[in-house]
Amino acid sequence: MTYLWTKTFHALFVIAWMACVFYLPRILVNLAETQGRPAVQERVALMGRRLYRFGHVMFALMLGLGLLLWFGRVVAPELWPHVTAGRGWMHAKFLLVLVLLGYFLWTGRMLKAIAAGATPKSSTWYRWFNEIPLLLAIPILFLVIAKPF
Ligand code: HEM
Q1: What's the rounded Cα separation, in Å, for the pair 101 and 108?
Q2: Cα distance between the two ends of the chain
Q3: Assign residue 87 a region: left if phi > 0, alpha if psi is -120 to 50, beta otherwise?
Q4: Domain count of the chain?
Q5: In this structure, which residue's CA is closest to atom 21 in ligand 1?
Q6: Ligand 1: residues within 6 Å at CB?
Q7: Scanning 58, 72, 124, 142, which has the fewest C-beta atoms within 10 Å of its C-beta?
Q8: How far apart are CA 44 and CA 116, in angstroms?
Q9: How far apart are CA 119 and CA 16, in angstroms?
Q10: d(C-alpha 124, C-alpha 119), whole Å
Q11: pTM of this prediction?
């Protein structure tokens, strides 16, 4: 039961973090489209900063529970059985999650640069940029659900 509850909360924080990963680039789209309207820009940038901070907390909770699912057997094998034993999917998943984390941090850097006065790229550029997490989320989900290797 402990294992299943850990996985439930892991999935919950995954949802919360992914919401940030998908929404932060939309904030960049809004910043690009509201050039010359400082009051709106300030508000949108504030929303971006708060969402980015929230994303860090969600990532930490997701990672903590993910590591417990992965290595919890070291402290209590009866609570967290070794489901990843001899399986490569977890390593592949973790690698893709690191790439996704890099994307998240890159988005945050772009937000900070614009808040500091840099000119945003075009909204079309950010819309395409917004598709990257989808391309990473699909294989990550397939790996955990199918555990193909
Ligand atoms: C932060 C790094 C992460 C680690 C260390 C991690 C680790 C794990 C582990 C060990 C499991 C248990 C697998 C099982 O019991 O079958 C799991 C389940 C799961 N993870 Fe993660 N995870 C991480 C991030 C993510 C991300 C970013 C996503 C989605 C985009 C995700 C989606 C899932 C899902 C959907 C499950 C449930 C799979 C199932 O029950 O079939 N995880 N995770």
Answers
A1: 11
A2: 26
A3: beta
A4: 1
A5: 66
A6: 7, 10-11, 14, 18, 62-63, 66-67, 69-70, 83-84, 90, 94, 97, 137, 140-141, 144-145
A7: 124
A8: 14
A9: 29
A10: 15
A11: 0.94
pLDDT, mean over the chain:
95
Dihedral over Cα of 12, 14, 15, 21: its sign: positive
The residue count for the chain: 149
CA of 10 to the centre of ligand 1 (A): 7
| Rounded distance between C-alpha atoms, residue 133 and residue 92, angstroms | 16
The three-state DSSP-derived secondary structure of 31-99 is HHHCCCCHHHHHHHHHHHHHHHHHHHHHHHHHHHHHHHHHHHHHCCCCCCCCCCCCCCHHHHHHHHHHH
pLDDT digits (tens, 9 = 90+) for 83-142: 887 789 999 999 999 999 999 999 999 999 998 989 999 999 999 999 999 999 999 999
Q: What pLDDT is attached to residue 57? A: 98
Host domain of residue 42: 2-146
